[in-house]
């Protein structure tokens, strides 16, 4: 019962993200079934979307990279000050 109580709200939220049939007809092939509303109105809209997607992927990559292996080795780094028990 606990699993259903957690899963049901997640499924309901996910279903809201799919496009309705009317919106699906207005979308280009790449975005069919994914988003609501009219599709990109010019090529510049797709350029903006791709630039933002690249920024998001790079941000995700570097955030995971620096979480896994931060690389700070300096004794005067701020983390040493915060983590010290003195």
Order of helices and strands: HHHH
β-strand number: 0
DSSP helical segment count? 4
> What is the mean predicted local confidence, pLDDT?
77
Largest sheet: none
Amount of helix: 55-70%
Percentage of β-strand residues: under 5%
Distance between the termini: 49 Å
The residue ranges in which pLDDT falls below 50 over 5 or more consecutive positions are: none
- Supply the helix-strand structural class: mainly alpha
Shape: flat
Radius of gyration: 22 Å
What does this structure look like?
The chain is mainly alpha-helical and 86 residues long. Helix content is 60%, strand content 0%. The protein is flat, with a radius of gyration of 22 Å. It starts with a helix and ends with a helix.
């Amino acid at each position: 019962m606990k699993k259903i109580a957690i899963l049901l709200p997640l499924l309901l939220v996910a279903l809201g993200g799919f496009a309705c049939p009317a919106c699906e007809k207005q979308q280009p092939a790449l975005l069919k079934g994914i988003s609501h509303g009219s599709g990109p109105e010019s090529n510049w809209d797709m350029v903006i979307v791709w630039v933002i997607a690249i920024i998001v992927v790079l941000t995700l990559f570097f955030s995971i990279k620096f979480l896994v292996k931060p690389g700070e080795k300096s004794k005067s780094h701020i983390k040493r000050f915060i983590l010290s028990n003195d």
